[in-house]
Write a structure and sequence with these properties.
Blueprint lengths: L6 H11 L6 H26 L15 H29 L4 H12 L9 H20 L13 H15 L4 H21 L7 H77 L5 H28 L2 H5 L14 H10 L4 E4 L9 H21 L5 E8 L4 E8 L16 H12 L3 E6 L5 E8 L9
Parallel strand pairs: 1-2
Antiparallel strand pairs: 2-3, 3-5, 4-5
């Protein structure tokens, strides 16, 4: 039978076989907690010490002068009413002498005027004054019969400050202010648990509600401003897109005009040796070079047109094959407009007019777009279309004037993108002409364009 070991020897054996307790984790946790606490206090100090805005008054960006003055009027009214009321309450209800009562009242109410432009700085004045007032009132014997630590005048002034603060500062700052308010209120309740009368809960709750509502209003206003900015940007982009689309359409049309002339040059240069006898060999080579150059130019124009054509145009039938219209088709255009219910009076030159192809096409498109605007915006209005030629001055004048629409008629469109006017300006600019558009005193509209009969070389730059 094995003898029992002594207790001391058994204890030593147990200590040798039992692993020691690990305290490294606890030692590492304490520094982490200290660092986290210091970081939290540093962040809190930054939030409470760094205003969001540069000190611009509330409603300072509003154009209306009276609306800019409204925050000052409201805060001044609260300050004027709260200052004597606070002095009266501190002296009559709590028995505080006149000097300390006046000092506390001024510190708690007058800085409200600063809250219009710098609410966080005003909070740094009013909140310590409210805390100091709670400490002073806590030592007065009459406090046992009255609310403590926050009198009603203090709560009202503090809520006004919270509203101004929530309309200017970011969320983290508002949370820090609310936390500081709650921490001080709880501290007062812990110091005198039976003398709070629930005002610390009321102060903490109402300040949180005001901060929440004010922050929601501020964020809603910021969202509306961003929406307006985006709408302005979208409107500018839409106008630019309309201009580019119109220029692309004009470029496609002019391609057909120029391509026709280039084709004529190519055919004439190729057929010259066969049509004209006795051409020297050097002249024949020159004609061949002209024809080759014309073909290369035509090919380059077609490649450029392929870039300008939109996918939508290609998907709906590819490049346009119809010949480009001119003044000869204006009468047919007017007939279609008359059938649409717009009475039109047309005046054209008596005989044929020799116009450059670009000028002929531009004149037709100006009349077309002007009549389209009449149909859309002034249906039923009497319209006069006049095309005159000044051969001595070398100008073609296109005039489209419509009167006010009849009373029973309503516009088919009450708003537009200005696409027609943009197209007119681009076409006139293309041939170095002039354009004058605008409303008339009788409610009508006038479009007057002067185009050179012979188009000049146009440099977009």
């Amino acid at each position: 039978m094995t003898p029992r070991r002594p207790d001391a020897a058994y204890a030593d054996q147990v200590m040798k076989t039992t692993p020691p307790r690990r305290t490294d984790g606890l030692r590492d946790l304490r520094p982490r907690l200290r660092r986290a606490g210091r970081q939290a206090l540093r962040t809190l100090a930054e939030d409470l010490g760094t205003p969001t805005g540069p000190g611009v008054p509330l409603f300072g960006q509003v154009q209306n002068r009276w609306l800019r003055l409204l925050p000052y009027v409201v805060v001044f009214a609260f300050m004027v009413s709260l200052l004597p009321t606070t002095v009266n309450v501190l002296m009559n209800d709590y028995g505080l002498s006149g000097g300390p009562a006046g000092t506390l009242a001024i510190a708690q109410t007058v800085p409200l005027l600063l809250a219009v432009a710098r609410p966080l700085q005003a909070w740094w004045v009013i909140f310590p004054a409210d805390v100091a007032g709670g400490i002073v009132l806590g030592f007065l014997p009459s406090t046992d019969d009255h609310v403590w630590p926050w009198p009603p005048t203090v709560i009202v002034g503090y809520l006004v400050l919270m509203l101004a603060l929530s309309l200017r500062e970011r969320r983290r700052t508002l949370m820090a202010v609310w936390g500081a308010t709650g921490a001080v209120s709880v501290f007062f309740e812990m110091v005198r648990p039976n003398h709070g009368d629930g005002t610390w809960v009321l102060m903490f709750t109402l300040s949180g509600v005001v901060l929440l509502v004010g922050a929601a209003l501020r964020e809603r206003g910021a969202a509306q401003r961003k929406l307006i900015e985006q709408e302005n940007i979208s409107e500018a982009e839409r106008a630019m897109r309309t201009l580019l689309e119109e220029r692309t359409r004009i470029a496609r049309e002019l391609h057909d005009v120029v391509a026709h002339h280039m084709s004529v040059i190519t055919v004439q240069a190729d057929s010259a040796p066969y049509r004209i006898s006795g051409i020297p060999q050097a002249a024949q080579e020159e004609f061949s070079t002209i024809a080759a150059t014309a073909r290369e130019s035509l090919a380059e124009m077609r490649r450029l047109l392929g870039v300008l054509r939109s996918e939508e145009t290609e998907r709906h039938g590819g490049p346009e094959k119809a010949p480009q219209p001119g003044l000869a088709q204006v009468a047919k255009l007017v007939e279609g407009t008359v059938r649409a219910g717009v009475p039109v009076e047309l005046t054209l030159p008596d005989g044929p007019v020799a116009l450059a192809s670009a000028v002929d096409l531009s004149a037709y498109r100006i009349v077309q777009e002007a009549l389209a605007n009449v149909v859309r915006h002034a249906p039923g209005a009497h319209t006069r279309v006049s095309v005159t030629v000044d051969e001595e001055g070398g100008l073609l004048t296109v005039l489209v004037v419509n009167s006010a629409p009849p009373r029973p008629a309503k516009p088919l469109e009450t708003s537009g993108t200005g696409h027609g006017l943009v197209g007119m300006r681009e076409r006139v600019r293309l041939v170095d002409g002039t354009l004058d558009t605008g409303p008339l005193p009788d409610g009508g509209f006038r479009v007057a364009a002067q185009l050179p009969i012979t188009a000049k070389d146009h440099n977009p730059a």
